[in-house]
Batch of 4 targets.
Target 1
Amino acid sequence: MATISRYLARVAGKTKQVVALVASSGSSDAGKMVATDTAGRLSPTVMPLGIGPSTNVAVASEDISAGKFVNFFNDAGVLKCRLADNSNGRPADGYVTATYVTNDPATVYPLDGVNSNMTGLTVGAAYWLGTAGGVIAVPLDEEDSNNANFISQYLGKAKSATELITTDDSYVVL
């Protein structure tokens, strides 16, 4: 069970026990004490601008599960994301660490990070973009005519069964 961090503060002339803030909702939380979350980390919402993970927010155009690779696209002037897919011209621009439903604002992590929401990886093995935001362990055969117009995109190497160290290599259309 997580311990809730508390501190003593003077409120309206009296000493009161106050719960430390784990996530900020903005300027209304100015001056409040902060505490780490259940993972022992500070929430990016309490960090100064420019400190924290480099992410982009885009509207999910479809349901996207945690750990999936996504592709950015322009939908009538709105940046949206969808599942990356080697079979239909959608290279991976990043990945998500949470699950999003259609029209949710999705937080997308750029390649060159560690996607720690994977399953079934082999430590040290290389992975390429597959279909529906997934990965494959064998690159597409560029000599196979069935792969014409598919995308071959190297994504990285497995650190563990659940972590892929991603790289931002460009892709090739076969």
Target 2
Amino acid sequence: MKKKILAIVSARGGSKGIKLKNLRKIDGKPLIYYSLKYLSKVKKIDRIVVSTDNNKIKKTVNKYFPKIEVLNRSKKLATHSATLTEVVKEVSKELYKKGYKSDYVLQIAPTCPFIKSKTVEKIIRKLEDKNVNCVVTLKRIEHEHPYRAKILNKKNSIFKSFIKNINVEKFMSRQDLPEMYCTSGAIYAREYKLLQTYNPKKISFCLGKNPIGIVLGDKESVNIDRPIDLEFAKFLSNKDF
């Protein structure tokens, strides 16, 4: 039986770093356009939904993708403190109550515009494995490697290594550092049942026992949070990496 795959794009109107970030233009198109474009090309996705609290975002989605659903976000989930996982859990649960029972839910951040459709397809193939219930996009940590993390004494400006039990000073060059990764923030794909166990007070990201990581390339790893990230994305938009 074909699995139902639901993709939820969370696009809040408010943003501390960049005002109306999801509508800022990159190469002539609003930021949210790019995530909807790459999702629309993935045939295995059964349903795409945008959750927002902003009328301008609703109109923008309707303009470029009239067939994609836009759902109003509750005031409770439109605050700075509400997590994306909370939003995705709530939306998928409401749809379930109305009769749409998804097997897998993709949590999509529109702030990562350079994700490729084939990456999403790869994530779905991993999810379809019987022993997998969570797949997450990762990016390799380079210059800001954990071994180079320091604690700064603000009174006298003296800094010390954050890691105490490893002699991190012996790793002189970047090539010597052990490979490490962090979540890119672009996509969290979960089995519906796993997603419903999410509790912001007890579980951080609701990843299950053995989450699978998909490592992104440099361009796909771009996540727009600050103004400098937006400018960097504009610079990269027409570059092929």
Target 3
Amino acid sequence: MQLRTLELFCTIAEQRSFSKAAAAHALTQSAVSQAMQHLEESLGVDLIDRSKRPLVLTPAGRVYLDGLKGCLL
């Protein structure tokens, strides 16, 4: 797992949008989506509820974000 992927997850959580996170990191939306899919697969849980707009974190995603906040500051 790369630090950039964790930063992307934090940006998605803040912006509640894959496209806004992609723009903020100068990436394509597809690249961001793939990175999040890989992160979720490696953790074995869904972090983002993609069925809602704007995006929301799942309960596991909120716990994960809270854990990252102290590490990435």
Target 4
Amino acid sequence: MERNAEMALRHWNERYVENAESWLNRPPRQMLVDWAHVLPERGVVLDAGAGVCVNAHFMVERGLSVIAMDFSEVALRLGVRSESNEKGNLEAVVCNMEQLDLPDDSLDVIVNFFFLERNSLRVYQRALKEGGVIFFETLLGMDEDKLTPEYYLQRGELLRTFTGFEIIHWDEGVPCGDKKFSEQLVARKQLEGRR
């Protein structure tokens, strides 16, 4: 693991340990709640950058099987312990998302909230089954964010990346904290004959 990646992992692990209760008491992302009606009744979901699995638990409760991926084992352990997994539909996987590789046409849903690894975007497109849905929201780059552009989307980047998908919801410049804004996308992979 590169030194920068090791430092980031240490930083996040410390945040999860120091503020475990706060992380675990967060609600699922509002965009996921608002658009939950487009989730299938059953299927396999990838929760990328899952953290303490708040979104994963929300989807398990809806009857979905969820693979929660994060590079922080500390976060995933907190998330898996936070609620009983009586349905057995939550699997936690420690993963360096820079090296993510998924089988083609293997997932019904992908959720990615406030995490950006651009190499994974093409992987997501291939991994979704036809008719599969992606929920994506992360920080939008503004002028003051030029110090770390790799952590921020460019304006309209999600729309450009998911060209050919049916756009169910898209918004840009959504307030999400102290002078921070996000881009949101909910999109369905088109069936072959309908593109």
